[in-house]
């Protein structure tokens, strides 16, 4: 485990630290049809989004994902957009404006406390606990915009202990980037440095202490080096323990 951490620490360039300076992290939910089906959720009539705290971000070399006591923790790999310009009230038809608003990309794993989320859904409560624990947002190094010519045609993947669990193309997204940024920017202004997660493909599942999670993206079958995530899972030492609200 120590050797893994030391290797990860050597991978972390300075540029990635700017991700923690994001004003907000906005996450699109239910944006892949097969993922909606596996969770028995309803397909949204418009992009559905929620916030994740920047304190949940963990960068390469910063340690493990911490699973809180009593939590069933699920992984969800996603393509992240790094916003580069002030964006407000963007029109969904303005595809060029949407792509101009994106300055870079990253791979992210939106870890979710699934049992806490299921309780929140049943009782009409916010998802803040389910999504907001420290370390619940591992992110890769920043991927230059020039490395991804078409963000709607990249393959996301996630492996658990070497076994592929998630693998799906962004061309299967229900709502593409222009519509996503349009709907968000009509509600809240996007500022430079903000992060937008675009949804996860099917195959989500639990990760437990002792597991190692690896994720990334491929273009034409070739893995993009900057998008690699490899992170161990540990039991949290926090005094938090899940109980029903």
From TrEMBL:
Protein name from the UniProt record: Acylpyruvate hydrolase
One GO biological process term: carboxylic acid metabolic process
Recorded superkingdom: Eukaryota
Parts forming coiled coils: none
UniProt keyword annotation of Acyltransferase present: no
Keywords linked to the UniProt accession: Hydrolase, Metal-binding, Pyruvate
Domain Fumarylacetoacetase-like C-terminal: 24-217
SUPFAM superfamilies referenced in this protein's UniProt entry, alphabetically: FAH
Gene Ontology cellular component annotations, sorted alphabetically: mitochondrion
Family assignment from sequence similarity: Belongs to the FAH family.
Organism: Fusarium flagelliforme
GO terms of molecular function: acetylpyruvate hydrolase activity; metal ion binding
InterPro entries with a match to the protein in the record: Fumarylacetoacetase-like_C, Fumarylacetoacetase_C_sf
Taxonomic lineage: Eukaryota, Fungi, Dikarya, Ascomycota, Pezizomycotina
């Amino acid at each position: 485990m120590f050797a893994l951490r030391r290797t990860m620490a050597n991978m972390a360039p300075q540029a990635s630290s700017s991700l923690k300076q994001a004003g907000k992290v906005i996450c699109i939910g239910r944006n892949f049809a097969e993922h909606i089906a596996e969770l028995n959720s309803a397909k949204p009539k418009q992009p559905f989004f929620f916030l994740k705290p920047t304190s949940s971000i963990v960068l390469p070399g910063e340690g493990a994902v911490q699973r809180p006591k009593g939590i069933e923790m699920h992984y969800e790999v996603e393509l992240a957009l790094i916003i580069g310009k002030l964006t407000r009230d963007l029109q969904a038809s303005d595809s060029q404006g949407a792509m101009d608003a994106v300055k870079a990309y990253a791979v992210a794993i939106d870890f979710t406390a699934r049992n806490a989320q299921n309780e929140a859904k049943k009782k009409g409560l916010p998802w803040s606990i389910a999504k907001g624990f420290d370390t619940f947002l591992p992110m890769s190094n920043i991927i230059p915009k020039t490395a991804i010519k078409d963000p709607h045609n990249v393959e996301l993947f996630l492996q658990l202990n070497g076994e592929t669990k998630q693998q799906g193309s962004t061309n299967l997204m229900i709502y593409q980037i222009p519509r996503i940024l349009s709907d968000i920017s009509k509600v809240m202004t996007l500022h430079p440095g903000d992060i937008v997660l675009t949804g996860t493909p099917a195959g989500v599942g639990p990760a437990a202490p002792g597991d190692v999670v690896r994720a990334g993206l491929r273009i034409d079958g070739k893995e993009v080096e900057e998008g690699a995530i490899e992170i161990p899972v540990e039991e949290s030492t926090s005094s938090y323990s899940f109980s029903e609200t």
